TrEMBL record:
InterPro entries the UniProt entry points to: ATPase_NBD (IPR043129), ROK (IPR000600), ROK_cs (IPR049874), WH-like_DNA-bd_sf (IPR036388), WH_DNA-bd_sf (IPR036390)
UniProt similarity note: Belongs to the ROK (NagC/XylR) family.
PANTHER family in alphabetical order: GLUCOKINASE (PTHR18964:SF173), ROK (REPRESSOR, ORF, KINASE) FAMILY (PTHR18964)
Pfam family, one: ROK
Protein name listed in UniProt: Glucokinase-like ROK family protein
SUPFAM superfamilies in the cross-refs: Actin-like ATPase domain, Winged helix' DNA-binding domain
Residue ranges of coiled coil: none
Length: 400
């Protein structure tokens, strides 16, 4: 196991530059940090000697010999990344530079309880390690995302509304039975925000990621880092009230945007429209399958069904109303929309945009861009891996 405590600040700064850029030439790496070229070259030589960085190919020539590209060493070990959703689990093994070694995704029911879910997670990790002949001791760090509020320092869930019974379960202790590597736990939307941040190479400093699925949450990147708040509950926007006369939410309050525009609410509106005879297409789908999903609604909307379009626009409008308040407060440069419900179609995104721009202050939206999460299918596990790298390799001793 690598001893990260003996890294100098300069060495850690170089590792961080390589991580966020994906790789640099020796000259570009030395020039990218705020200390002398000679000190940078000494630190680079030290990192190469300890096999923490390696040469990973050549850059295009600008005249003369093509420079060697330096990157985080694949030989130092691997990272385990786990993304738990309300209805699925994603597990991956990653190299330190976020190269995907293996990735498995499958359906899961979090209501079955944390012990059963994490027994499956451990089995998947074990199968992937055996497939690639990677010993448990080669795992450098483990990142875990869960769909609920997390006290980051302890890694424990706190009153998770979608995960009854999980708050007494220690994810760290469970994984420690098999791995000596440190385990870091955060809520799934913070993980998605970190994955998006890395995909964009850290170029955006202030943005939001909204995950719309069984619940609605927000990951906040503020000044280039995840903002979690005092107790880890920052970004719990699903319980912002958008209609005081709206339906009762599972949190006990009325009119929360999650109760009106998350996946279950959208499915209920679609089924109500089908039963009321407002849509022959939705009625046909309901009769055939017994239930309707947000994806059924999205397919009907793409087919031009008027009732489906009205539901999609209404749900997008509610989410936009909530986001307008957040935009006025935070003034982000970008909002990225992700989660399963985001796939219902372009009308949903258009409705969110229209509502945000209509209700936000002109100054707050002058440079605002609202779009889908880039490469959303792997944002969760990449984000869990980014968290593991940041907390294991790049954090100073005072943060561990």
């Amino acid at each position: 196991m690598v001893d990260w405590h003996h890294l100098s600040d300069g060495e850690r700064a170089l590792l961080e530059r390589l991580f966020w850029t994906g790789g640099l030439s020796r000259g570009d790496l030395a020039a990218s940090v705020d200390f002398s070229k000679s000190k940078a070259n000494m630190a680079i030589a030290s990192l190469l000697g300890r096999e923490l960085i390696e040469e990973g190919g050549v850059q295009p020539s600008t005249g003369g010999r093509r420079p060697e590209l330096l990157r985080l060493s694949h030989g130092m070990g691997v990272l385990a990344a786990i993304d738990i959703g309300a209805t699925s689990i994603d597990v991956a093994l990653l190299a330190p530079d976020m190269t995907l070694i293996d990735h498995r995704s499958e359906a899961a029911d979090v209501h079955a309880g944390a012990p059963l879910v994490f027994a499956r997670v451990r089995n998947l990790l074990r199968q992937m390690r055996e497939r690639h002949d990677i010993a448990a001791g080669r795992v450098l760090g483990i990142g875990v995302g869960v769909p609920g509020p997390v006290a980051f320092d302890s890694g424990m869930l706190v009153n998770p509304p979608l995960l009854p019974g999980w708050e007494t379960f220690s994810i760290r202790d469970c994984l420690a039975e098999e791995y000596a590597a440190p385990v870091f736990v955060d809520n799934d939307v913070n993980i998605m925000a970190l994955g998006t941040h890395w995909r964009l190479r850290g170029q955006l400093r202030n943005f939001l990621v909204i995950k719309i699925g069984t619940g609605i949450g927000c990951g906040i990147i503020c000044h280039g880092a995840v903002y979690r708040g005092t107790d880890g509950s920052a970004g719990d926007v699903g319980h912002i009230c958008v209609d005081p006369h709206g339906p009762l939410c599972h949190c006990g309050n009325a009119g929360c945007v999650e109760a009106m525009a998350a996946g279950p609410a959208i499915a209920r509106m679609a089924e109500a429209a089908a039963h009321a005879g407002e849509s022959a297409l939705l009625k046909e789908l309901l009769d055939r399958n017994g239930v309707l999903s947000p994806m059924d609604l999205g397919n009907a909307s793409r087919a031009g069904d008027a009732a489906a379009n009205a539901i999609v626009q209404q749900a997008g409008g509610w989410i936009g109303r909530m986001l307008a308040a957040v935009v006025n407060f935070f003034n982000p440069s970008h909002i990225f929309i992700g989660g399963g419900v985001a796939k219902v179609g372009p009308l949903f995104l258009a409705s969110i945009r229209q509502s945000v721009y209509q209700r936000s202050l002109a100054l707050s939206t002058r440079h605002l861009d609202i779009q889908y999460v880039p490469q959303v299918e792997s944002a969760g596990v990449i984000g869990a891996g980014v968290m593991a790298v940041q907390e294991t390799m790049l954090a100073g001793p005072e943060r561990r």
